[in-house]
Amino acid sequence: MATIDVRDQGNKVVGKVDVDAGVFERAVKRSVLHEAIVHLQAGARQGTHATKTRSEVAGSKRKPFRQKGTGRARAGDRRSPLWRAGGTTFGPQPRDYSTRFPRRKMKLALQMALSAKCADEQIFVVDVLGVDEAKTKRVAGLLDGLGLEGRTLIYDPEGDESLALAARNLPNVKVVSGRGLSVYDVLLHDNLLTSQDGITRIDEALR
Fold first, then answer.
1. Does residue 73 share a domain with residue 133?
2. Tens of pLDDT, residues 75-87
3. What domain range includes position 13?
């Protein structure tokens, strides 16, 4: 078992929470994390890029000049890829970039990401995570009280709408709930902030 300190909103340690060492103290393999990040980023691509082929560009299909006797290279129509304003050969077309990724491997990658954060002491657990009103200054005050700087990921197990509304104006803060915790978000942010119930749910889901 491993332990993580539980703090109040004034950054004072008020207790400890036991978590599974297999989730928060696992050996980190950069190759597994890299594969997971590539998979998630590929799935997020829109894939709407497109170029026009010679059958799609505007222009006449009439032969521009006779085949022989002009001294020029022969040409069949003005939409040839060799001509200015002609079609594009082998250009990008709309496609789906998503790939298949084993569920167990993604779970392993998330365990490694959390273990890396835990080793760097970048996981912060508070006894009370919610805010009394949907005001940005409430969340900003909470982060200042804990001394959190840089990008902060807040995992709210209850999905409190007031907390999400209060944090959305802070440029370096992201709030996720439920199953929204991803390897990409954990590694992208400098700190992970959650409640004691939140860290327990993460621990139970990834065992």
1. no
2. 999 999 999 999 9
3. 2-46+99-206
Token pair, residue 155, equals: 């995992």
- Beta-bridge partner residues of 126: 7, 195
Q: Of 36, 60, 91, which residue sits at a domain end?
A: 91
Cβ atoms of 11 and 147 within 8 Å: the answer is: yes
Model pLDDT, residue 29: 97
Could you give the percent of the chain with pLDDT greater than 90? Answer: 91
Are residues 183 and 118 located together in one domain of the fold? yes
- Is 164 found in the same domain as 121? yes
Query: 42-69 pLDDT, tens per residue?
Result: 999 999 999 999 999 999 999 999 999 9
Alpha-carbon distances, residue 146 vs 74, 129, 131, 167, 198 (angstroms):
74, 12, 15, 15, 17
Task: State how far the Cα of 120 lies from the Cα of 191, in Å rounded to an integer.
Answer: 10
- Please say if the pLDDT value at position 41 is more than 90: yes
In three-state secondary structure terms, 174 is strand
Same domain, 186 and 111: yes
Distance CA 40, CA 161 (A): 26
As for how many domains the chain has, the answer is 2
Of 55, 59, 51, residue with least CA distance to 84: 59
CA 157-162-166 angle, to 5 degrees, is 110
In angstroms, the CA 94 to CA 73 distance is: 33
- What's the rounded mean pLDDT across residues 154-171? 93
